[in-house]
User: What shape does this take?
Amino acid sequence: MSSSENSGPKTNGNGAKSYNKSTLDVVLRVIYLIVFIYLFIVAVKLLGSSFKGLGSDYAKSLFEATSNPVVGLFIGILATSIVQSSSSTTSTIVALVAGGALKIEWAIPMVMGANIGTTVTNTVVSFAHINRRQEFGLAYAGAIVDDIFNLLAVIIFLPLQYYTNFLGRFAVYFSSMFSKAHGFEYFGSPLDYAVKPLVKIILHQIEGYEWIGIFIALILLFISLKFIVDNMRYLVLNKIKAFFGTYLFSNTIKALLLGFVLTAIMQSSSITLSLVVPLLGAGVLTITQMYPYALGANVGTTLTAIFAALVAGKEAGLTVAFAHFFFNCSGMAVFLPLKKIPINIALKVAEISEKNRFIPIVIVIVMFFIIPFIFISTR
Assistant: This one.
């Protein structure tokens, strides 16, 4: 039977078009994919909200516990790992600075740490591929390349910031230009309007038992990811692969702008980065294509704090928000041309992790929770 007989619409005896099973399968798979992407986003939001319910007071108290830039960095990492959102962390930092409860010089290392802490989500997402060795290697490498980028950027720019305050100087200049803006109103993320109702219903049902929300979110996260991966594998035909390769991720500029725009709209780099991890595991994208997308997402997430600072109307808060923006831009200016460094490190770590898949779990626990907690508790 020829391929033309197996695909496309057919004409029945009445002259009307009818679609064969293959076409209907594709349509249903696309619908399933959209539904499970929505549930995945709900799971991420529910996870963050449940963690906030358990640890929001602790996270907020961390911000007042800094005594030096390194401690501030680890406070940013731990707080963001707890609340699962760099946007929430940086917005809180901006509010504290605007209210005079936190000094600008301690706030800047914190937002650097928030950049690292937010990558825990997409790293955990890659664990959905852990039973398939090759897929896991691809997904995990793509998930941690942003971690590597942020760590390298901090190694370079934290000492430079401490001794020269270059981020503070740039930020003060730009915040003075925008501080006179009045009447700005922040309407929030359109993504929130789509997923918040369902998240609120779940949280209302489990009020006082936030650990159940974490449990539900993790189950929902991995179930939705499994279906996303399975449907992507089914739909990854040459045309779809070409669509991503030729249009969305065809070059560095397109991928970078896509990451920036999507994150600016969703106001969550955790979600925009996590959504492409299954594409890496399925072989639709390569780590080289994903890397500029991740850098664009890093810059896009800084807009949330800038919006929050503009609403607050305090120049000090706006200074911190712009410092976060310039930190990401500075890192991108260095490590976009030198992209082989973070990419090769990520691939090497992924290669080691393929052989012992217990290592990535240990890395997450140690890097995002144990080390920051030790540094903060012994400050």
About this structure: The two ends are 73 Å apart (CA to CA). The beta strands are 9-11, 17-19. DSSP finds 18 helices and two strands in the chain. Residues 56-178+234-377 form one domain.
